[in-house]
Automatic annotation (TrEMBL):
<keyword id="KW-0063">Aspartyl esterase</keyword>
<dbReference type="GO" id="GO:0042545">
    <property type="term" value="P:cell wall modification"/>
</dbReference>
<dbReference type="InterPro" id="IPR006501">
    <property type="entry name" value="Pectinesterase_inhib_dom"/>
</dbReference>
<dbReference type="InterPro" id="IPR011050">
    <property type="entry name" value="Pectin_lyase_fold/virulence"/>
</dbReference>
<dbReference type="Pfam" id="PF01095">
    <property type="entry name" value="Pectinesterase"/>
</dbReference>
<keyword id="KW-0378">Hydrolase</keyword>
<dbReference type="GO" id="GO:0004857">
    <property type="term" value="F:enzyme inhibitor activity"/>
</dbReference>
<dbReference type="InterPro" id="IPR012334">
    <property type="entry name" value="Pectin_lyas_fold"/>
</dbReference>
<keyword id="KW-0732">Signal</keyword>
<dbReference type="InterPro" id="IPR035513">
    <property type="entry name" value="Invertase/methylesterase_inhib"/>
</dbReference>
<comment type="similarity">
    <text>In the C-terminal section; belongs to the pectinesterase family.</text>
</comment>
<dbReference type="GO" id="GO:0030599">
    <property type="term" value="F:pectinesterase activity"/>
</dbReference>
<dbReference type="Pfam" id="PF04043">
    <property type="entry name" value="PMEI"/>
</dbReference>
<comment type="pathway">
    <text>Glycan metabolism; pectin degradation; 2-dehydro-3-deoxy-D-gluconate from pectin: step 1/5.</text>
</comment>
<dbReference type="InterPro" id="IPR000070">
    <property type="entry name" value="Pectinesterase_cat"/>
</dbReference>
<feature type="signal peptide">
    <location>
        <begin position="1"/>
        <end position="28"/>
    </location>
</feature>
<protein>
    <recommendedName>
        <fullName>Pectinesterase inhibitor domain-containing protein</fullName>
    </recommendedName>
</protein>
Length: 375
């Protein structure tokens, strides 16, 4: 018979062995938290994300593309509407850069048989892509600096960005059968256009800030009018636009007879400073100037001042029948921001038999052609 002491020792030994085994089991199979809670959180987050995407994309023309674009935005349900639109604009910028790279490849790779007209059309597209990127950046800036106060500005630049894509495609209108490389690049351009369209639809949902006082003399699309001008035209520019031409001291003078600094407008534009923040006035004396003039992106805040409609005339005749794209046919093309013009006639003299032809093409911002004739 086992003694009581031996019995106690045996029980203690068995208990120790059992505890040791349990400890080994715990080491071998560590405890794992139940995944139920995490799965629940993921389901809730996914549901919130989907609901937010559906809400933002409601009313867009391309809802599937919209939802796809928003699907990669982290914590979408916690983002403000301007933040969501900015993310869409950023995705659009990436798409534009992809289109630009694609077109550049067609221009540079050997083996692509591009005729002169197609090269011109692709060059047009590259210029328009650059302009589109500027407009998308302007939209982002407006959205991040008080969106409710800049709704009109954002809508304007986004609308221009859409138009650019179709202007690019128009350049292939007179290319041979099938439109050449139009069919190759159009898918990308439509994608960009649809992204911008979705952004525009979302911008319409932003509540505009109410003006502190009623607008006077409303001019739709140009905010309110002060002294006959949109309120974004500065007091100095209003004076320049209203003053007699002989009372303004120009920075440069163009004259056919050689009495000025230059005999051509293009030479005067080339001599103007780049990216100036102050107004630079080019006075163009009476006469007919047979040339195509381009105010490039880096020529900001230029002003053309002539001697009157029908007196100072800028004239050329580029057209699509003679091999130019509609975009490149402009007698005067303005891309630089802040351009002003007064008392000048601009004419494209190609005539109806030459089909598409443009007198003035303007892509810059805050431009005010004033008392100027177009033919």
């Amino acid at each position: 018979m086992m003694s009581s002491g031996s019995s106690k020792r045996s029980k203690l030994l068995i208990s120790c062995i059992v505890l040791s085994c349990l400890f080994l089991l715990l080491l071998t199979f560590p405890s794992v938290p139940k995944p139920v809670a995490n799965h629940h959180k993921l389901r809730v987050h996914s549901h919130l994300h989907a609901a937010a995407a559906a809400d933002h994309c409601d009313g867009t023309l391309y809802p599937e593309l919209c939802v796809s674009t928003l699907s990669v935005i982290p914590d979408l349900h916690s983002k403000s509407l301007p933040e969501v639109i900015c993310a869409t604009v950023n995705a659009t910028e990436a798409a534009v850069r992809g289109s630009a790279k694609n077109c550049t490849n067609y221009l540079n790779r050997r083996g692509y048989n591009l005729d002169v007209r197609q090269r011109l059309a692709i060059d047009d597209c590259l210029d328009l892509f650059s302009q589109t990127l500027d407009e998308l950046r302007a939209a982002s800036a407006g959205l991040t600096s008080g969106a409710s106060a800049h709704v009109d500005d954002v809508q304007t630049v986004l609308s221009a960005a859409i138009t650019n894509q179709y202007t690019c495609l128009d350049g292939f209108a007179y290319v041979g059968k099938g439109g050449g490389y139009r069919s190759v690049i159009k898918r990308r351009l439509y994608h960009v256009s649809h992204l911008v369209s979705n952004s525009l639809a979302m911008v319409k949902k932003i509540q505009r800030r109410r003006a502190s006082r009623p607008r006077r003399e409303p001019l739709d699309g140009y905010a309110k009018v002060v002294d006959g001008f949109p309120d974004w035209v500065s007091v100095k520019d209003r004076r320049l636009l209203q003053a007699a031409s002989n009372s303004t001291t120009p920075n440069l003078t163009v004259a056919k007879d050689g009495s000025g600094n230059f005999t051509t407008i293009s030479d005067a534009v080339a001599a103007a400073p780049n990216n100036t923040k102050t107004r630079f006035v080019i006075y163009i004396k009476a006469g007919s100037y047979f040339e195509n003039v381009e105010v490039t992106k880096n020529k900001k805040n230029l002003m053309f001042m002539g001697d009157g409609i029908g007196k100072t005339v800028v004239k050329a005749s580029r057209n699509v029948v003679d091999g130019w794209t509609t975009f490149r046919s402009a007698t005067v093309a303005v891309v630089g921001d802040g351009f002003l013009m007064r008392d000048i006639t601009i004419e494209n003299a190609a005539g109806p038999g030459k089909h598409q032809a443009v007198a003035l093409r303007w892509l810059g911002s805050t431009s005010v052609p004033f008392t100027s004739g177009l033919n």
